Amino acid sequence: MARQRTDLLDPDEIKANLKTKRIGRKILVYDSTSSTNDIAAEYARNKQNDGLVIFTEKQTAGRGRVGNKWLSGRADSILCSIVLIENKLSAELLSLTCAVAVAETIGRPGRSRAKIKWPNDIMLNGKKVAGILLESKSLPISKSKIENRKSKIYVAGIGINCHQKKESFSDELQQIATSIDAESHSISDRILLAKRLLVSLDHWLEVAANNSEKVIYRWRELSIQLGHRVTLLFNGAKFTGHCIGIDPEKGLILQLDTGGIRMFDVAHSAIAK
Ligand code: BTN
User: Is residue 20 in contact with ligand 1, taking CB distance under 6 Å?
Assistant: First the structure.
């Protein structure tokens, strides 16, 4: 059955009745870009652009975490980057906050619950449906503006698989990746999803600024690993244990099979497949 493309991203439609305070005050939609994170990083030079969102229908150089590529067909996904000028939240907490916001956008009542696989892969029925790439730069800050000195520029890049069919993924990827449509057996509306995403980010970023414990509590509730056995690689060495917690700065906390409790930070660890 041919699918009608009725959900091409349109900035006015995304903005219509968008009740956000910070995220999406400015929205730009590109037909094609290299990586939306690169475009957003250019806009981030101006701190007035806090909350600006770049969407694109196609990326020619989309990238994922740990040097991976992020591939998607035209108009099949939500591909966006958000400029965040922060002087309060750490990168680690921002990353967890974005994960909670994206998981809540995807996992709606009546649909399968989206879960978070540490640090910020979003999973539907055990397969990855979305990813987040948080990048940062230091602002070239005017020394006269003391209150700005601690500001840091972040670009939160978010990719959500929406319309991909199972066959759109390579044989290898089919085992580990999915899309919203493939899991729901229906066709999602990317404009609605984009709106929900911005509302969810706006909400959770505000929560994080006021009470970070609430974000961590929600992250724990959405975690696919908490309370389960996890195997991960830390500096190349394999560790297995029961996941007993998450600390925003120190990472995943495991009760190791070999005895003892150990924390694994995001900079040095990767979840073993
Ligand atoms: C991951 O590896 O899980 C992170 C994937 C992030 C992909 C998104 S798509 C929009 C933005 N632009 C990019 O180049 N990457 C992010």
Answer: no
